[in-house]
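In the design runs reported in the main text, the only information available to the sequence generator was the tokenized backbone. The following block is the verbatim input for one such run; it is reproduced so that readers can re-run the procedure and compare outputs position by position.
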């Protein structure tokens, strides 16, 4: 691994692999990885359905694991990579955890809270400001989501047609 270049794209690719795991579990495919000094300290993928937990977003899972690894609720000097623009809850958790940098892939026009629906990290009243980088591997990140929803629509349609035949 010594000659691996730890670029934003490298880590986002890792987050995409985790997003695929969410898909495999029947969850909306979003993945997140928390990095400190080129070391993974937290991984998460979206799993609210399986865990019966509305807070089980990829970012929250990665932040929780990072806290355990660092034995600190403040995740200073870390970078969180996530395939999709975070929601209000996750953006808020990032402020609380004091991450240094957020890197996200695709924008989420409906619920994105880092520039789309609103911009939580940039709010002037926030007591912590993180660096935000967006658009890393955005086409791959959004393609994974649109593929997932396309397949799900087809599956539902097939189910409907199958039940009509009964
Ligand atoms: Zn979220």
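Verbatim output:
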């Amino acid at each position: 691994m010594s000659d691996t270049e730890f670029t934003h794209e490298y880590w986002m690719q890792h987050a995409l692999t985790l997003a695929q795991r969410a898909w495999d579990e029947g969850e909306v495919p979003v993945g997140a990885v928390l990095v400190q000094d080129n070391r993974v300290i937290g991984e998460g993928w979206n799993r609210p359905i399986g865990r019966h937990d509305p807070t089980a977003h990829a970012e929250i899972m990665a932040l929780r694991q990072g806290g355990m690894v660092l034995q600190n609720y403040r995740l200073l000097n870390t970078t969180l990579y996530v395939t999709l623009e975070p929601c209000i809850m996750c953006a808020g958790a990032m402020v609380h955890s004091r991450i240094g940098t957020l890197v996200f892939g695709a924008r989420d026009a409906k619920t994105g809270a880092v520039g789309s629906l609103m911009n939580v990290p940039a709010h002037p009243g926030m007591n912590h400001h993180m660096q935000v980088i967006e658009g890393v591997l955005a086409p791959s990140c959004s393609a994974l989501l649109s593929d997932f929803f396309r397949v799900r629509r087809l599956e539902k349609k097939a189910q409907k047609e199958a039940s009509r035949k009964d």
